[in-house]
Amino acid sequence: MKDNNNLFNNSLIDEYTFKKINKIINNLSNNQMIWLSGYLFNIIENNKLNNELKKSSILIDNKITILSSSQTGNARLVAKKLYDRMVLNNFNVVLLKASEYKFKKINKEKILIIVTSTYGEGEPPEETYVFYNFLMSKRVPKLNNLSFAIFGLGDSSYKFFNKSAKDFDYRLKELGAKRLIKRFDSDINYSKVANNWIKEVLNFFKNVTFNKSNLSIKNKSIKVDNYEKKYSKKNPLITNILCNQKITGRYSNKDIRHIEINLPNVNIFYEPGDILGIWYENDPSLIKKFILCFKLSNNDFVKIGNKNISLYEALLKYCEITVNTINIVKKYSYLSNNKYLLSINNDLLELKNFVKNTPLIDMFIIYKSKLLAQQLVSLCRPLSPRFYSISSSQKEYKNEIHITVKILKYRSKNFVHFGGASSYLGRRINENDKIKIFLQKNNNFKLPKDSNISIIMIAVGTGISPFRSFIQERENMKAKGKNWLFFGDQKFTEDFLYQIEWVNYFKNGLLNNINLAWSRDQKYKIYIQDKILENKNIFWKWINSGAYIYICGSITMSKSVEISILKIIQENGKMNKSDSVIFLNELKINHRYQKDVY
Ligand SMILES: Cc1cc2nc3c(=O)[nH]c(=O)nc-3n(C[C@H](O)[C@H](O)[C@H](O)COP(=O)(O)OP(=O)(O)OC[C@H]3O[C@@H](n4cnc5c(N)ncnc54)[C@H](O)[C@@H]3O)c2cc1C
Ligand SMILES: Cc1cc2nc3c(=O)[nH]c(=O)nc-3n(C[C@H](O)[C@H](O)[C@H](O)COP(=O)(O)O)c2cc1C
């Protein structure tokens, strides 16, 4: 027994409980005890916060504002659900998108509830950028009269999990606002946590003192964007593949596929900029490695939800086996009792580094352990669909949806790895095979309503995809606005996606300007941000004549492009740095600068 008896004399704990605790502690390793102490500390902190909140009785005599800060609609759905429940309970509540929020009057606000997702490298969604920047700046007033609650939607496989929710939470507190209930952070399967949070919010408001004027106020009914129509994430359309064709050259470093999907006579209407959600199945050869590694059998039974299915089926359709996360490593360290994994368990930096460099199967092989079939499936995250920008216009292809998919391929010490969904789409399904899809509206990446307005499209790699849809749409609409494409990749002969189509658009005059950047066709690197700067005078002219700017592709590229554009605004617009940022923010507010990056 560990020598804890001397603690007992001063303890608040009776002898029976003390012995029970010691019995548990005796079976724990040092690392497990460290974890336990952190766990207990968290419980104490949360209890403290809840007690503080219970004590603070707030007289509600003003409206409650719910802000949804969303890129692809999840946060909007949660915010709308809360709004509906509050309306049902007769609260005076308004629901706004972050892009509609008059944030400069935030100091007039009394109660603000923010539901936000996180994007980029821990950034808020596009529509929230300007509000977020304002809130983080020195210009923002003290907010002592404000009370707030935050709900975060994120994905724990990203380095900055739920960062924008955390940022809002800390910053509002720092500015003097009062937290109504503690922040809830949710992971990819957010629904359950969201429902619990909504319950807590409602309970909180039911327990505060009301001013009568707040009750029985008629709320305007709000039409929320119908993100989940007939076919949805939960109820996808099952259709078939029409074509799956490699569109990069023989010597390209990348395998990129043009995939055409049948859209039979069903009510699915998509617009340029929208995204396709795809449910995929894992690679059978990887499943085999998992099963062999733990000496399990395909036919072992496991429980997923309330279904009993074979381990093979669970790993094929229900578990994410290509993505490692910090949570998985932590859980596996306890299950395996592996010394090394336990030693990095409390070191966030080490954990992040480990996850980045160690795919799941490598971790299982290097840090071998015994797992039961059920333990294995419970350890993996539930499989979630992947998203692809639609690369066709329905005006051109009424009964088809096209996507452009890069097969993710990388090497670790042990194996060559492929991305789960991209290798399913690119390598494992063929013409006529069935596929499960659903549409994800993307109102943050839309052509200007007025087709006389000119557009500048900036893309690298598969970022070209929505622009193929844009240009088809503009051709069909006989849009008078001009079109300019900046496209970049490694090599002209290997990586010019949809080359013939773009050349034809340029020849027939629909595409007015085209600038290409090939990073590996010469000794020194050339990127699209360089091409933008080379054309700064015309670029500035287009901006001044009202052009919309669209950026699609990698997050890193979008940052470099933004630096170039800010430079043009400063030099050609004769502005200092901070004025150029204000100018760009204005473009964002007016939807004239839209990004779709991943
Ligand atoms: C709005 C939106 C639009 C998109 N549009 C497109 C599109 O048009 N075309 C397109 O091709 N993609 C697009 N994507 C990306 C796409 O959704 C998938 O993320 C991509 O295909 C990879 O998914 P996967 O399932 O193949 O890989 P996963 O199975 O999810 O594998 C990814 C994981 O592999 C690991 N990993 C990756 N590289 C390494 C490495 N070098 N070392 C160690 N581990 C590594 C990481 O853990 C990473 O999380 C889009 C994404 C979004 C959000
Ligand atoms: C390209 C991309 C980047 C993301 N980056 C992060 C991130 O840095 N941190 C995080 O916690 N979640 C991240 N996520 C996960 C989203 O926040 C999560 O999927 C959320 O449910 C999306 O909600 P929305 O539809 O309201 O935008 C990212 C998702 C995508 C597609």
Automatic annotation (TrEMBL):
Binding site for FMN: 70-75, 117-120
Key word Flavoprotein present: yes
Annotated positions binding FAD: 322, 386-389, 410, 419-422, 598
Pathway in which this enzyme or protein is active: Sulfur metabolism; hydrogen sulfide biosynthesis; hydrogen sulfide from sulfite (NADPH route): step 1/1
Binding-site positions, NADP(+): 519-520, 525-529
Keywords noted in UniProt: Amino-acid biosynthesis, Cysteine biosynthesis, Electron transport, FAD, Flavoprotein, FMN, NADP, Oxidoreductase, Transport
Cofactor note: Binds 1 FAD per subunit. Binds 1 FMN per subunit.
Ranges of residues in domain FAD-binding FR-type: 234-448
GO molecular function terms attached to this record: flavin adenine dinucleotide binding; FMN binding; sulfite reductase (NADPH) activity
GO BP annotations, alphabetical order: cysteine biosynthetic process; hydrogen sulfide biosynthetic process
Keyword NADP listed: yes
Domain Flavodoxin-like per the UniProt entry, residue ranges: 64-202
Cofactor(s) the record lists: FAD; FMN
Enzyme class name: oxidoreductase
GO annotations of cellular component type: cytosol
Gene3D superfamilies, alphabetized: 3.40.50.360, NADPH-cytochrome p450 Reductase, Chain A, domain 3, Nucleotide-binding domain of ferredoxin-NADP reductase (FNR) module, Translation factors
Record EC number: 1.8.1.2
InterPro entries linked: CysJ (IPR010199), CysJ-like_FAD-binding (IPR003097), FAD-bd_FR_type (IPR017927), Flavdoxin-like (IPR001094), Flavodoxin/NO_synth (IPR008254), Flavoprot_Pyr_Nucl_cyt_Rdtase (IPR001709), Flavoprotein-like_sf (IPR029039), FNR_nucleotide-bd (IPR039261)
Quaternary structure and partners: Alpha(8)-beta(8). The alpha component is a flavoprotein, the beta component is a hemoprotein.
Record function comment: Component of the sulfite reductase complex that catalyzes the 6-electron reduction of sulfite to sulfide. This is one of several activities required for the biosynthesis of L-cysteine from sulfate. The flavoprotein component catalyzes the electron flow from NADPH -> FAD -> FMN to the hemoprotein component.
Entry-linked NCBIfam families: cysJ
Name this polypeptide is given: Sulfite reductase [NADPH] flavoprotein alpha-component
Taxonomic source organism: Candidatus Purcelliella pentastirinorum
